[in-house]
Fold:
Amino acid sequence: MEQVMTQKNQKMHPHKFTLWVAMGSITMMFAGFTSAYIVKSNMAGWVPVQMPSIFYLSTFLILASSGTIYLAKKKFQERAMAQYRVLVTVTAALGILFTITQYLGFAELWGQKVTFSESVAGSFFYIISGVHALHVLGGVIALLVIFLRAFSSKTRYYSTTPIEVASIYWHFVDVLWLYLFVFFILVS
Amino acid sequence: METTHTHVVSVSQEAHDETHHGHHHHHETFLTKYVFSQDHKTIAKQFLITGMFWALVGGLFSVIFRLQLGYPDAKFPWLEDLLGEWAKGGQLQAEAYYALVTMHGTVLVFFVLTAGLSGTFSNFLIPLQIGARDMASPFLNMLSYWFFFIASIVMLSSLFVQTGPFSGGWTAYPPLSALGQASPGSKVGMDLWLVSMALFVVSSLLGGLNYIATVLNMRTKGMSMTRMPLTIWAFFFTAVLGVLSFPVLFSGFILLIFDRHFGTSFYLSDIYINGQALPNEGGSAILYQHLFWFLGHPEVYIILLPAMGMVSEILSVNSRKPIFGYMAMVGSLFAIAILAFLVWAHHMFVTGLNPFLGAFFVLLTLLIAVPSAIKVFNWLTTIWRGNLKFTPAMLFALGFVSLFISGGLTGIFLGNSALDIHLHDTYFVIAHFHIVMGVASMFGMFAGIYHWYPKMYGRYLNNTLGYVHFWVTMIGAYLIFWPMHYEGLAGMPRRYYKFDIWESFKHFGSLNQFISIISIIVFLVQILFLINFFYSIWKGRKVTSQNPWGANTLEWTTPINPGHGNWEGDLPEVHRWAYDYGKDGKEFISQTTPVAADESRH
Structure:
């Protein structure tokens, strides 16, 4: 025991740290999904699906929401609460719009006979994007919680940790979507 | 055996006045103190007792199917009283046999040796041994237990549905698990199995996140990573394995649920069942096996690593010697954790896996022998010429080492893809994984319970019953599983209901009876242990000194019955590693003792 570190390791807030580990865990789930997709796509009888064009719009929406939550965090740190509330609302709305456009894309594909029983590639596509959309909705719920807190008249919140945790997670689901988007285009 | 009873060394630090602890806590009701508790120590006990319940159920199942294997033609009318339809005319039905085998595996692997072992001791020991008042998030920790509890309720309820619980093996391979018409157990029993396992995965993830965040962020002053007891290193790697592998299993389960209920074809293709051709095309059953074993193999180490960590600690304390090769122990835990992710396909050598690819998995699998051997050598050199105190905990720790060696050696046979063609799915595999993973981890768990019981309940377990428990279990485990190696080498397949159509296995009839009888005896001794456990909670000999084993780690600096928050006043400060035993003529030096000027080395 020659090298000894005596000072306490207090670099990161435990909640933030837990979130990072959780994101690693979620990443593993999608790694499982996408590696299954790759394995299957190399087998006989694989018919790739065409990505619905509205998914380009949803990609734009989620990218924009990453920008708004970044600004929201900045405004919170500056204690510009009015702008902060607007930006959090816009972010949550963009998240919901993202989910709606995803659903519209699913409906379009389903209309083209890409159904669970007809297309294995389609089934993968629905489930992987769907599980991702659920994670976005989870983020929306987190935003709603801090949103309600921002309007609470009784208590004032000064800790930046909740909005930081929410924004890290939001950027994460954004990057995760970009990965899936590029993945679907390349592997198809 | 005279000396074994004198192990309760009194310690320099006098016990705190018992009436003093807990006085500064806010008022706790029965509900917040014992039911929805956020105290890691109470949650640990909840995990332990739920795990014990499941061990009793899973163990009883094995006794019942061992009766079938030992006495395939006998009739047991009481079995019909117990199981009803499942044992019509006193004879276990084939479907019931498969259900019992499946439930035995599921329950023991996940509910007992994952939740019951890691859930109990990670919860109990991480805050106590790193000097924290509680987990990083006590609330998530409580949720982790209650998700496990609900998973337990759902799994338990699947035992009582009319078509029975899932019966396609604990690995739940499709198509058996994907098609309701495949067998009675694949109907609602399988749905309940999936729901229960999904809840269980959530519970494990919540727990694992907390363990990692706590170990990395909540260590007390002076507790650097390299001063942590090996138990904490083991729990840490266990949690990392769980957090990275359970989500992959979860993704496999999601696909399975869609195959079962929404008409997808991830795992199904070209199936003809009950005279009817299914429309599913383009699926692959092997895909599920990849996803499953990507969790399934790390799961083996999720079960084993906590036992390894606790055994390291207990061997060192009861040998009154420092652990041999601390950094090598940490390094080998790390190596095992990495390799755990790279060997999953050795469960699939005979699925048509490319033999060229298989060769890499053989190599990586056999590589695990290196860190495993390092650990064994270090345990042996730790006890070598030690001043051994044969407490029940120490005996179980020694038993663990013995089982890990004998079970590990047969792993070298099985890791070889050529030998595996003959040995796969035989009783040789059963013998291997029960000894090296099942019974060994169970021994680690028993060692942990006997060793930390005084800290959990402020009382001791009865020693005599402990010795009876150890010797019968130890001898019994070898008597049960050793003969199975011979049966397996002869080619006797696992999971079969009856062997009477094979002339070649007929001469194993009396051997099977022998195994069955021993397993009943061993099961009864476990009930003795349970009686000891619950009796001692209320009536056991009281602990009178703060540090009954003379150990260095921080949990023994807390009051005898610590309240929520563990330490009264300030958190302890750590000045040294956990293994200064027999140094400079002192029997032991607590981690909280500052380094003195005259110490020989540090």
